[in-house]
Design brief:
The complex is a heterodimer of chains A (643) and B (289).
Chain A: H1 2-8, H2 14-30, H3 35-50, H4 56-74, H5 86-106, H6 112-125, H7 132-154, H8 158-182, E1 209-210, E2 223-229, E3 241-250, E4 253-256, E5 272-280, E6 287-288, E7 290-291, E8 294-296, E9 302-303, E10 309-310, E11 319-327, E12 330-332, H9 337-343, H10 352-364, H11 368-381, E13 385-386, H12 398-406, E14 408-409, H13 411-425, E15 429-435, E16 442-443, E17 446-450, E18 454-462, E19 465-469, E20 477-478, H14 497-517, H15 521-533, H16 535-560, H17 567-581, H18 592-603, H19 608-619, H20 625-642
Parallel strand pairs in A: 13-14, 13-20
Antiparallel strand pairs in A: 1-4, 2-5, 2-17, 3-4, 3-7, 3-15, 5-11, 6-10, 8-11, 9-10, 12-19, 15-18, 16-17, 18-19
Helix pairs in contact in A: 2-6, 2-7, 3-4, 3-5, 4-5, 5-6, 7-8, 8-16, 10-13, 11-13, 12-13, 15-16, 17-20, 19-20
Chain B: H1 4-13, E1 15-18, H2 20-39, H3 42-65, E2 69-76, E3 79-80, E4 85-93, E5 99-106, E6 109-116, E7 120-128, E8 134-145, E9 152-167, H4 175-183, E10 192-197, H5 209-213, E11 218-222, E12 231-234, H6 242-259, E13 263-266, E14 271-273, H7 279-287
Helix pairs in contact in B: 2-3, 6-7
The chains are: A alpha+beta (643), B alpha+beta (289).
Chain lengths: 643, 289
C-alpha cells in the first residue's frame, strides 16, 4: 500500500515515462521476436542497469551485437526478394527499430525518434496479433501511453495524471465506438501473421470412421466451431452438422468415396430455411460442416452430390463463413446404378449371424419400408446399450459382435451395424459423420460445437429420397460413462455454474470476435441493413449507445470532481455549499470562525456549536471518533434548519 | 463538470496554436490509417480512432483547464535597475476543478505552475531584472499550457495594467566613505571617543569603570554615538555623469535608510529631504530624473 502511495506520488522524468512506455509496448513483441534479438535486448537492459554512460566503443560493440542478433534472427528466412513479403519486412523493421532505440536509450539523451518509438512499436505489433487478449492489451497500451504523455506534460504526481488520462480516455470512448461502427470499410481479407499458438485447434474428426481401437475419436471439450444463428437455434433433433459421407468399409474403417465433383441435385421440397454464421477452428482436414440439408456454404468450398462440403486444402486457419440450410431429415436425390451398387455392398465373408437375420427379413417382406421397420424393430429388441467404453469387439465380425454378443457401443458401432444390416436386407444406405450438438452449449442464438459432439448417423435410400436414421436412438439404455466426453445422445443434464459461466465467456468472446475483431465491410452492411429495416433493433442500438454515453458522462464527472483530501473540510463542504446557495458567501480572506459568527449574528442561524466542534477537531492533537460523529450530526442538523 | 458555456466563453479568450505534437498526430493518423485500411486490421482501427478521439478531446480539456483563471498584480520588492527582484502576482483559479501545467510568461520571464487547486489563489514570485531605471509597465503577460497532450498550445493573454518605478542601480562608494570624506574622520564607528557624564539610566556596559574608581561617574562614548551633522548629498558631486550620480545617490539613500539617518539630496531643481518625503518618494524622484 505504501509502495502504491509512493508510486502514485512520483513525479515524472522524461526517461522514466519513456521506459514505462517501452515496457508496455515491447511486451507483446517479446512473444514474437526471435531469441538472438531477445538476448540483445537483455544485454542492453544489463548495460542500462549498470548505469554508466557508455563510451563510443561500448556503443559500437552494442551496434555490432545488434546487427549480429538481427542476422541470426533472420538467418535462413531472409532474402531481398523475401522483403516483398510483408511479414518479413515488418519483422526486419521491428528489429532495426529495436536496435536504434537501444542505442539511443543507452546514451540517455532523448530525441524525437526516441519519443515516437513506443507508438511505432505499438503499430508494428498490430501486424502480428489479432486476438481477444490483444484487443484488451491494446486498450491498455493506449491508456498507458496517454497517461505517460499527460504525466510528462503535467509534471505533477502520477495520481493526478492518471485521473486526467482516465477522463480523457473515457471521453474518447464514444467517438471510438461510433467511428469503429460507422467508419467506411473496404472489403479485404485479414492478413494474418505471427503468433497464432492460441488458435491452433485440432479437431478429433478425421472424416473416416474406425471400428477398431481407434474408433473413439478424442472426446475432448475443445471447440470445433462456434455457430451464430440469424434466428433462434433449431431444436436439438435438427442440429446435424454434416461432414464426410462414408460408403466403403475396408479393414474395419469406413471411408468416403473419391471426391465427387457432381453438384447436388435440386430439391424443391419444403423445409425451414436457416441462415447461420460459423467460426470453424483449424482442423487440418478439408471438411466444412454445414447443417442438413446444406444449400450454400463458404465461397471457396465445394458442395457435391453427397452433400459433402469441402475445401480444396486442409483448413489450417480459423475460418469464418456464412451458410444456409434447409432443416429436414430427408431429401430428394437420384441414385445412379454405380452408387446403388456401392450403397448395397457388404462383406459376405463376415458377420454370418447378421446375414442370416437379414435373410429372414428379406424373406418376410419385399417392401423396403417394411424391411426398414423390421431392421429398426430388431435394433430395439436387442436392448442395446449406449456406452463410450464398450467391451472389445471381434473385428472380423464386428456387426455380429455388436448386435449379438457385446450389445453395447456408441454412435460408430450403431451406425456401422445399422448400415451393414440395412445393406444386407437390400436397402441402399450410407454413414454420415459430422457433429451433433445437443444444444446445451448455447446461449440465445449462439451455439458451441465441441469435439465431443462428433457423431455418426445413417442415411437410407427409400422412394427416391435419402432419409436420415438416428441409429443411436435405438439404444435401450445409456451407460453413465460420459464424464469425460460426449454430450451427444445424452439428455441435457443440469449445467454446473462453472460450465454456465464458461459458456457465457465463450459467448462474449464470440460476440467480440464477430463484432470487433472480424468486423468488416460485410458486417457493416449487415448492421446498416438491420438499422434501416428493424426499428426495434434501431431503438435498441440507440438506447444502448445513450446508456453507454450516460455511464461515460457519469465516469467523467466522477473523475473530474476535485478529490477531497481533508476529511473535516469534506464533511463541512455540503453545508458551506448550501450557505453559498442561500446567499451567505464567505468573503475573501475571512476565517471560518468569523464567517460563522457573522452569519449567526445576522441571520440567527445556530452555528456556534458547529464552529466550536470544527475548531476542536481542527486543532486538537488527535481526532476522536465521537467528535467526528457529533460534527457530522451537527452539520446535518444545521443543514436541516437551513431547509 | 465541463460546461459548454464556460468552454465557449474561455475559447473566445484563448489563442490556440498548433505544436509539433499536432503534426505528429496527423502523421500517426495517416500511418495508422494506411495500416488499418490496407489490411483491415480492426485493432489498428481501434488505435487510430483512439488517437483521433484523444487528440480531439485534447482541445476541450485544454480550454477548460484555462477557464476561470485570473492573474492580478500583487506588488513587488523595490525594483532596481540591473538587479534581480521579485514581482508578486496572484494566480486565481475560481473553477471547481484543478488547473494543470500552467506556464506564466511575463516580461520575458517564465514560471511553471504544475497544478493550481480548485478555487484557490497562489502567489507567484516572478524574478525580474530591469535593465534601466524609470517607469515599468507590467502589462502583457500570458498564461500558456500544453495540457493535456501537448498537441495544442493554449495561450491566455492577460493584461495586468500595473505600473512600477524602477529605481537607479545602487552603485558607487559607501556611505561611510562619504562620511569620512566629509568629516575627515578616521577609524571605526565603534572606536572609543572619550567619556560623558553619567545620566542615571545608562546600561552597565556603558559605565566607564576607571572613572568610577576615581570617584567620578562617567559613561563611555563611542564614535557612532557622536551626532552627525545633517547629511547633505549633492547631485553634481555624487559622480561623473547623471547615471553614475543617480546610482551613487541611491546607494547612499539606501544605506541612510538602513542606519535610520536623515539626509537631504540636493538635486538640480529641487531639494529632497528625508524628513519631508518617504524614501520611496525620493528614490522615485531619482528614478524618473
Amino acid at each position: 500500500m505504501r509502495y502504491l502511495k509512493n508510486l502514485l506520488s512520483t513525479k515524472p522524468t522524461p526517461l522514466r515515462t519513456l521506459d514505462i512506455a517501452y515496457i508496455v509496448t515491447l511486451l507483446p513483441l517479446v512473444l514474437f521476436i526471435k531469441l538472438p534479438v531477445l538476448f540483445f535486448l537483455l544485454l542492453v537492459l544489463v548495460l542500462l542497469l549498470i548505469g554508466k554512460k557508455p563510451t563510443a566503443v561500448t556503443l559500437s560493440a552494442v551496434a555490432l551485437a545488434g546487427t549480429a542478433a538481427i542476422f541470426f534472427s533472420l538467418y535462413g528466412s531472409f532474402s531481398f526478394a523475401g522483403l516483398s513479403r510483408l511479414k518479413l519486412f515488418v519483422e526486419l523493421m521491428i528489429y532495426l527499430l529495436l536496435m536504434a532505440i537501444a542505442l539511443q536509450r543507452l546514451t540517455r539523451e532523448i530525441n524525437f525518434y526516441l519519443k515516437i518509438s513506443p507508438l511505432l512499436l505499438l503499430a508494428t505489433s498490430l501486424f502480428f496479433f489479432h486476438s481477444l487478449p490483444m484487443l484488451v492489451y491494446v486498450a491498455l497500451e493506449v491508456f498507458v501511453l496517454t497517461t505517460m504523455l499527460v504525466w510528462q506534460v503535467m509534471q505533477t504526481d502520477l495520481y493526478r495524471s492518471l485521473r486526467v488520462s482516465s477522463a480523457l480516455y473515457v471521453a474518447s470512448l464514444p467517438i471510438v465506438i461510433l467511428f469503429f461502427i460507422f467508419f467506411p470499410r473496404i472489403s479485404m481479407e485479414h492478413a494474418r501473421y505471427g503468433f497464432k499458438g492460441d488458435l491452433m485447434h485440432r479437431s478429433g474428426h478425421d472424416g473416416l470412421m474406425h471400428l477398431d481401437k481407434n474408433a473413439l475419436l478424442v472426446p475432448s471439450q475443445r471447440i470445433v466451431m462456434e455457430v451464430g444463428f440469424k434466428e433462434k437455434i433449431p431444436s436439438a433433433g435438427q442440429l446435424y452438422f454434416r461432414g464426410s459421407v462414408l460408403y466403403d468399409k475396408i479393414d474395419n474403417i469406413w471411408r468416403p468415396l473419391k471426391t465427387s465433383r457432381d453438384a447436388p441435385s435440386p430439391d424443391f421440397s419444403k423445409g425451414e430455411l436457416i441462415s447461420y454464421k460459423v467460426t470453424l477452428y483449424p482442423t487440418s482436414k478439408p471438411w466444412i460442416y454445414l447443417l442438413e440439408r446444406p444449400l450454400s456454404g463458404p465461397q471457396k468450398a465445394t458442395l457435391n452430390s453427397h452433400l459433402e462440403s469441402k475445401m480444396s486444402q486442409p483448413i489450417k486457419e480459423t475460418m469464418l463463413y456464412q451458410a444456409e440450410s434447409l432443416l429436414k431429415s430427408s431429401y430428394k436425390s437420384p441414385l445412379p446404378e454405380t452408387l446403388r451398387q456401392i450403397t448395397l455392398r457388404y462383406d459376405a465373408a463376415s458377420d454370418p449371424r447378421t446375414q442370416s437375420l437379414a435373410h429372414e427379413i428379406r424373406i418376410k417382406s419385399n417392401d423396403p419400408r417394411q424391411k426398414l421397420e423390421a431392421v429398426q424393430s430388431f435394433f430395439r429388441a436387442q436392448k442395446l446399450t449406449y456406452t463410450l467404453k464398450p467391451k472389445p469387439f471381434d473385428l472380423n465380425n464386428s456387426t455380429d459382435s455388436f448386435l449379438f454378443e457385446q450389445k453395447e457401443g456408441y454412435c460408430v458401432h450403431f451406425a456401422a451395424a445399422f448400415t451393414t444390416l440395412a445393406r444386407m436386407v437390400g436397402i441402399p444406405s450410407r454413414i454420415v459423420t459430422g457433429y451433433r450438438p445437443d444444444g446445451s452449449n448455447s446461449i440465445q442464438n449462439y451455439l458451441i460445437v465441441r469435439e465431443s459432439d462428433a457423431h455418426a448417423w445413417v442415411e437410407v435410400y427409400l422412394d427416391g429420397r435419402w432419409h436420415r436414421v438416428e441409429s443411436t436412438a435405438f439404444a435401450a439404455a445409456i451407460k453413465d460413462d460420459t464424464d469425460q466426453g460426449s454430450s451427444m445422445d445424452m439428455a441435457a443434464g443440469e449445467k454446473s455454474q462453472w460450465q454456465q459461466l464458461n459458456l457465457y465467456l465463450h459467448y462474449i468472446k464470440y460476440q467480440i470476435d464477430t463484432w470487433i475483431l472480424e468486423y468488416s465491410s460485410l458486417s457493416q452492411k449487415k448492421l446498416f441493413s438491420y438499422l434501416k429495416t428493424d426499428t426495434l433493433f434501431l431503438l435498441k442500438f440507440i438506447s444502448s449507445f445513450l446508456l453507454l454515453l450516460a455511464l461515460l458522462i457519469l465516469a467523467l464527472y466522477l473523475l473530474s470532481r476535485p478529490k477531497c483530501r481533508d476529511r473535516i473540510q469534506c464533511m463541512l463542504k455540503p453545508l458551506l455549499d448550501t450557505l453559498e446557495k442561500q446567499g451567505f458567501s464567505k468573503q475573501q480572506g475571512e476565517s471560518l470562525n468569523r464567517y460563522f459568527s457573522r452569519i449567526e449574528q445576522a441571520e440567527q442561524i445556530p452555528l456556534s456549536a458547529l464552529n466550536r466542534l470544527y475548531h476542536q477537531l481542527r486543532y486538537q492533537k488527535t481526532v476522536k471518533q465521537e467528535f467526528l460523529r457529533s460534527f457530522e450530526e451537527e452539520v446535518r442538523r444545521v443543514k436541516k434548519t437551513l431547509k | 463538470m465541463l460546461s459548454l458555456r464556460t468552454l465557449s466563453q474561455t475559447r473566445k479568450r484563448l489563442k490556440q496554436k498548433a505544436t509539433l505534437g499536432s503534426l505528429l498526430v496527423v502523421l500517426i493518423l495517416f500511418g495508422l490509417f494506411l495500416e488499418a485500411y490496407m489490411h483491415n486490421f480492426n485493432l489498428v482501427y481501434i488505435v487510430l480512432f483512439f488517437v483521433f478521439a484523444l487528440a480531439f478531446f485534447a482541445s476541450p480539456f485544454g480550454i477548460y483547464n484555462m477557464a476561470d483563471l485570473a492573474l492580478a498584480y500583487q506588488g513587488s520588492d523595490r525594483l532596481f535597475a540591473k538587479k534581480r527582484s521579485a514581482i508578486y502576482l496572484a494566480l486565481t483559479n475560481s473553477k471547481s476543478t484543478e488547473s494543470y501545467a500552467l506556464k506564466l510568461e511575463c516580461m520575458g520571464q517564465n514560471l511553471f505552475v504544475p497544478a493550481l487547486k480548485a478555487q484557490s489563489r497562489e502567489i507567484l514570485a516572478l524574478s525580474y531584472r530591469p535593465e534601466r531605471r524609470g517607469k515599468l509597465e507590467i502589462g502583457a503577460c500570458s498564461l500558456q499550457s500544453l495540457f493535456p497532450l501537448a498537441t495544442i498550445r493554449f495561450l491566455l493573454p492577460l493584461d495586468l495594467s500595473a505600473h512600477r518605478v524602477v529605481y537607479p542601480r545602487p552603485q558607487g562608494s559607501s556611505l561611510e566613505t562619504f562620511l569620512s570624506r566629509q568629516k575627515g574622520r578616521y577609524g571605526q564607528e565603534n572606536d572609543f571617543e572619550g567619556i560623558s557624564p553619567y545620566t542615571g539610566d545608562a546600561p552597565l556596559g556603558k559605565i566607564h569603570w576607571p572613572s568610577v574608581a576615581k570617584g567620578e561617574s562617567a559613561l563611555k562614548k563611542f564614535a557612532y554615538e557622536i551626532p552627525l551633522e545633517h547629511l547633505n548629498f549633492d547631485f553634481y558631486q555624487a559622480g561623473k555623469n547623471d547615471e553614475a550620480r543617480l546610482s551613487q545617490l541611491t546607494r547612499w539613500i539606501l544605506e541612510c535608510e538602513a542606519q535610520n539617518l536623515d539626509f537631504q539630496v540636493q538635486m538640480p531643481h529641487e531639494n529632497l529631504n528625508s524628513k519631508r518625503m518617504s524614501i520611496d518618494e525620493i528614490l522615485e524622484k531619482l528614478a524618473l530624473y
